[in-house]
C-alpha cells in the first residue's frame, strides 16, 4: 500500500492533448473565514465530520440505510463501491444537495442536517460539470467568493490574491487569463479543485473526480491530488468505483454495499484483512472456493485436502485467496486442479485453473522471472494456499 507522505518533487504537468473535461462547482456559504490564505494554501484544514444513522430511500430502494461514519479533520477518505451502493447519495446528502429521510449530518459539533447547501460551506467537484466557458480561469476560481452576499464578500484585492495563491498551489501560475477551451483535461480538473478550495470549505467533496479522464492522466492526477491534500490538510471525501484509486489516495476507505457500510479501514486493512466475503471479492483480484467448515477446518467441494478455517461449527463456507497467494506444488499434494489456460503479461504469468467441482475458475500468478517450469495446458497440478480467509455462507 502507498505511503502518504509529503513529497519534495514538483507537481507534474498534464498532457495538453486530452480533450476530456471534468470540472466542478464551488458551493460557498456562511460559517468560514474568507481571508486569503498564505502561499502554501488554505489556512484552515476543515473540520470533523460526523454521520449519524443516515437513511435515504428512493421508492422501495434504500439508497442509505442507517449509515454511521466519522471523518477526522484533515483526513482524505474514499467512498468506494459499485453502482447503486449509496456512495454518491451519501456525498450529496453531506453537501446538502439531497435531504435525508432520517439521521443527522454534523460539521464538528454543529448539526448541519437542515442547513441549505450554501449555509454548509462545502466545496463540491462534480464529475461532469464543466467550467464556465465564458469565464477565464481566474474568474472561475473566484466564482464562489464573488457569489457571496455583499456583507460577506471579500474585496476585489483579497479575491485577486486568493486566486493567485491557488494558481500557485495547483502549479498553474500565469494561467489566470486563459479560458477553459485552452486547457487540457487535467488542467481543467485542477482549476475545478482550486475553485472548490477558494471558499475555504468546511469539507471538500469530490464525485468521481477523475472518472472521464484517460488512464495515464488519471494516474498522474490522483497522485497530484494526494500531494495537494498533504499540502492543504483539507478534510476531503471522494467517491470512486476504482479500487486502485481508493487504495492509493485515501487515508481510509469506506466500502459500501446496498446503502450500508461493509467496512471502514486503512488501505492495508481493507486489502489484507477484509471484514466480509463481499469486501474480499470486491477489492482486488480474488479466487473463491465453495465448501464446508467441519471441526474447525475448511474442505472445498470435490477436494480431499482440509485447511484450517479459524471458525468453529459445521456450516457451508467460502474460502477466498488472492492469485499471488497460491503456490504450485506436486499434483498429488495440496488442492487438485487442472491447467485450463496460460496468460503472459508484462509483469506476470497467470494460470487459469479448474478445481474439480468448483463452479468458478481459479487464477494463480507467477512472476515473469520465476524459475518454476510452466505446466502444460491440460496437466494436473497441486495448489498450496499460502494466505487465505474463510467466511461462513
Automatic annotation (TrEMBL):
Q: Does the keyword Transcription regulation apply?
A: no
GO BP: any one term: quaternary ammonium group transport
What InterPro entries does the database record attribute to this sequence?
AAA+_ATPase, ABC_SmlMolc_Importer, ABC_transporter-like_ATP-bd, ABC_transporter-like_CS, CysA_C, Mo/tungstate-bd_C_term_dom, P-loop_NTPase, Sulph_transpt1
Decide whether keyword Transport is in the record.
Answer: yes
Q: Can you name a GO cellular component term?
A: ATP-binding cassette (ABC) transporter complex
The annotated region (Disordered) lies at 1-27
Residues in domain ABC transporter?
Answer: 49-283
Q: Which SUPFAM superfamilies match?
A: MOP-like, P-loop containing nucleoside triphosphate hydrolases
* Protein keywords: ATP-binding, Nucleotide-binding, Sulfate transport, Translocase, Transport
* Database matches in Pfam families: ABC_tran, CysA_C_terminal
Query: What one GO molecular function would you report for this record?
Result: ABC-type sulfate transporter activity
PANTHER family under this entry?
A: SPERMIDINE/PUTRESCINE IMPORT ATP-BINDING PROTEIN POTA, SPERMIDINE_PUTRESCINE IMPORT ATP-BINDING PROTEIN POTA
The record's listing under NCBIfam families reads: 3a0106s01
What is the protein named? Sulfate transport system ATP-binding protein
Amino acid at each position: 500500500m502507498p505511503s502518504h507522505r509529503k513529497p519534495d518533487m514538483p507537481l507534474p504537468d498534464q498532457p495538453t492533448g486530452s480533450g476530456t473535461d471534468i470540472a466542478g462547482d464551488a458551493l460557498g456559504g456562511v460559517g468560514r473565514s474568507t481571508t486569503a490564505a498564505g502561499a502554501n494554501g488554505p489556512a484552515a484544514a476543515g473540520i470533523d465530520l460526523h454521520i449519524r444513522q443516515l437513511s435515504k430511500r428512493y421508492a422501495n430502494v434504500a439508497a442509505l440505510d442507517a449509515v454511521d461514519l466519522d471523518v477526522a479533520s484533515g483526513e482524505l477518505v474514499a467512498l468506494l463501491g459499485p453502482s447503486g451502493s449509496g456512495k454518491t447519495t451519501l456525498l450529496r446528502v453531506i453537501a446538502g444537495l439531497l435531504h435525508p429521510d432520517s439521521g443527522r449530518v454534523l460539521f464538528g459539533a454543529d448539526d448541519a442536517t437542515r442547513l441549505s447547501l450554501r449555509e454548509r460551506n462545502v466545496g463540491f467537484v462534480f464529475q461532469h460539470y464543466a467550467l464556465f466557458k465564458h469565464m477565464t480561469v481566474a474568474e472561475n476560481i473566484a466564482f464562489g467568493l464573488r457569489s457571496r452576499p455583499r456583507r460577506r464578500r471579500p474585496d476585489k484585492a483579497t479575491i485577486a490574491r486568493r486566486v493567485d495563491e491557488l494558481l500557485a498551489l495547483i502549479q498553474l501560475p500565469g494561467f489566470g487569463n486563459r479560458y477553459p477551451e485552452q486547457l487540457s483535461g487535467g488542467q481543467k480538473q485542477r482549476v475545478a479543485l482550486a475553485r472548490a478550495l477558494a471558499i475555504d470549505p468546511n469539507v471538500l467533496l469530490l464525485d468521481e473526480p477523475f472518472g472521464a479522464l484517460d488512464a495515464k492522466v488519471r494516474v498522474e492526477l490522483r497522485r497530484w491530488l494526494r500531494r495537494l491534500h498533504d499540502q492543504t490538510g483539507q478534510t476531503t471525501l471522494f467517491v470512486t468505483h476504482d479500487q486502485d484509486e481508493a487504495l492509493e489516495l485515501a487515508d481510509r476507505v469506506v466500502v459500501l454495499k446496498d446503502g450500508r457500510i461493509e467496512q471502514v479501514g486503512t488501505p492495508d486493512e481493507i486489502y489484507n484483512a477484509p471484514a466480509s466475503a463481499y469486501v474480499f471479492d470486491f477489492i482486488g483480484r480474488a479466487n473463491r472456493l465453495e465448501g464446508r467448515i467441519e471441526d474447525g477446518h475448511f474442505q472445498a467441494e470435490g477436494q480431499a485436502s482440509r485447511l484450517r478455517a479459524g471458525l468453529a461449527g459445521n456450516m457451508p463456507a467460502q474460502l477466498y485467496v488472492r492469485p499471488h497467494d497460491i503456490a504450485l506444488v506436486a499434483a498429488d499434494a495440496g488442492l487438485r486442479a487442472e491447467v485450463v489456460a496460460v496468460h503472459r503479461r508484462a509483469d506476470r504469468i497467470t494460470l487459469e485453473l479448474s478445481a474439480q467441482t468448483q463452479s468458478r475458475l481459479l487464477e494463480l500468478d507467477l512472476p515473469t522471472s520465476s524459475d518454476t517450469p510452466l505446466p502444460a495446458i491440460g496437466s494436473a497440478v497441486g495448489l498450496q494456499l499460502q494466505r487465505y480467509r474463510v467466511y461462513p455462507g
